[in-house]
């Protein structure tokens, strides 16, 4: 009893805005999923995390095994990495900062710009880390609904901007809807002058990017990641393209060794095996319309067109949870949503052709 009293006295000292923070709901690890389905982990068909079903470049695995310096700290200035990433996207190393996933950069940007009570505009439904990190930083989220096609409601965003509004996040392609932000909408929003963070985690699958715009606007940041196209989600590496003055501040506040030695090797090898990885991206992009067509042929699903490596579907007859459970029992894992905004929706990552086949066969049986 005494122990509990001590814990609650300690808990009282936790900062108030963090005590009431809702936790982020992350995905479940493969071994846990496998146990749930009663199968071995290599039999799991994992279509819930928008990961790359082909894995990373085989050269990454070889280079990791060869590297002899894991006992030495990695470069806190990310010299080699910043140069290589800058070359990949056609910019200067001074504009690049890498993070432990783009997740870390979302956090660092908010830490840099938010005073308690400052506002962040979030166009929902979208990626959950924007409001989550805003909450951690003591900011307030201004929520703006997207329209029925999941396009950004530009007039509503503009009307919501006030003196306390610091940042607007726009995922393009958006997760979970899969659509890119209309370039004219984006331009209009950037030209309001507030800081716009365009999260291009899935840009390699859409073939569209606003990276060339960064030199024109000092209030535009682009986030990218190696998690999806390069198959390095487990390594945790993302990067931001910043106006150089902002990049300096992000470099200053980031944890010194945020990119570990293994992640650094993985990125360098991926960037030197780019043709192989582009081939894998192409395989996913080629599979996307086939998956879409097959999902559309299922009577109780209404898939939305996607520019990313996943497809959002409305589920008719309130069956999203039932579909999720039934697929999970067969070792096929997807995301399902049952929130006020996404009532009875599922999101399916584009897998290999054989994953599509297994999924569609299982869905057909639920007819
Ligand atoms: C829109 C969006 N941004 C960022 C991320 C996170 O990427 P990372 O693995 O680089 O942290 C995700 C992951 O699902 C995402 O959907």
Describe this entry's structure for a reader:
The protein is α/β, with parallel strands linked by helices and 367 residues long. The chain has 2 domains: 122 residues, Aspartate Aminotransferase, domain 1, CATH 3.90.1150.10; 215 residues, Type I PLP-dependent aspartate aminotransferase-like (Major domain) (Aspartate Aminotransferase, domain 2), CATH 3.40.640. It is built from 15 helices and 13 strands. Helix 7 links the parallel strand 3 and strand 4. The structure holds pyridoxal-5'-phosphate. The site of pyridoxal-5'-phosphate (PLP) has 13 residues, from helix 6. Pyridoxal-5'-phosphate (PLP) binds next to helix 6.
Summarize the structure.
The chain is α/β, with parallel strands linked by helices and 367 residues long. It folds into two domains: 25-55 and 275-365, Aspartate Aminotransferase, domain 1; 58-272, Type I PLP-dependent aspartate aminotransferase-like (Major domain) (Aspartate Aminotransferase, domain 2), CATH 3.40.640.10. The protein has 15 helices and 13 strands.
Topology:
Blueprint (H helix, E strand, L loop, with lengths): L1 H11 L3 H4 L10 H8 L7 E2 L11 H9 L12 H11 L6 E4 L1 H13 L5 E6 L4 H8 L3 E6 L8 H7 L4 E7 L11 H8 L4 E5 L3 H4 L13 E6 L12 E4 L2 H10 L7 H11 L2 H23 L4 E3 L6 E6 L4 H10 L2 E2 L1 E4 L4 E7 L3 H13 L2
Parallel strand pairs: 1-11, 3-4, 3-5, 5-6, 6-7
Antiparallel strand pairs: 2-8, 7-8, 9-10, 10-13, 12-13
Helix pairs in contact: 4-12, 5-12, 6-7
The structure holds pyridoxal-5'-phosphate.
The site of pyridoxal-5'-phosphate has 13 residues, from helix 6.
């Amino acid at each position: 009893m005494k122990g509990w009293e001590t814990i609650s006295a300690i808990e009282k000292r936790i900062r108030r805005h963090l005590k009431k923070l809702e936790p982020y709901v992350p995905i479940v690890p493969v071994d846990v999923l496998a146990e749930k389905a009663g199968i071995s982990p290599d039999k799991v068909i994992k279509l819930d995390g928008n990961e790359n079903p082909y894995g990373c470049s085989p050269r990454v695995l070889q280079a990791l095994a060869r590297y002899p310096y894991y006992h030495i700290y990695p470069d806190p200035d990310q010299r080699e990495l910043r140069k290589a990433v800058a070359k990949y996207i056609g910019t200067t190393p001074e504009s690049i900062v890498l993070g432990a996933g783009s997740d870390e950069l979302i956090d660092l940007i908010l830490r840099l710009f938010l005073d308690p009570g400052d506002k962040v505009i979030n166009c929902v439904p979208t990626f959950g880390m924007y409001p989550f990190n805003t909450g951690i930083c003591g900011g307030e989220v201004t929520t703006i609904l997207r329209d029925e096609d999941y396009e950004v409601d530009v007039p509503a965003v503009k009307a919501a901007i006030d003196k306390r509004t610091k940042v607007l996040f726009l995922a393009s392609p958006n997760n979970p809807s899969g659509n890119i932000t209309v370039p004219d909408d984006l331009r209009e929003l950037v030209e309001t002058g507030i800081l716009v963070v365009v999260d291009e985690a899935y840009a390699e699958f859409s073939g569209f990017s606003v990276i060339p715009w960064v030199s024109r606007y000092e209030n535009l940041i682009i986030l990218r990641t190696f998690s999806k196209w390069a198959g390095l989600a487990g390594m945790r590496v993302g990067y931001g393209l910043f106006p150089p003055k902002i990049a300096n501040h992000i470099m200053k506040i980031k944890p010194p060794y945020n990119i570990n030695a293994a992640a650094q090797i993985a990125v360098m090898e991926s960037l030197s095996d780019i043709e192989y990885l582009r081939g894998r991206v192409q395989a996913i992009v080629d599979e996307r319309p086939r998956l879409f067509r097959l999902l559309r042929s299922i009577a109780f699903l209404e898939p939305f067109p996607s520019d990313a490596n996943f497809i959002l579907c409305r589920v008719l007859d309130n069956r999203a949870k039932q579909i999720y459970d039934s697929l999970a029992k067969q070792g096929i894992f997807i995301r399902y949503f049952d929130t006020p905004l996404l009532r009875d929706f599922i999101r399916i990552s584009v897998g290999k052709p054989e994953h599509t086949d297994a999924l569609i066969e299982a869905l057909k049986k639920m007819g």
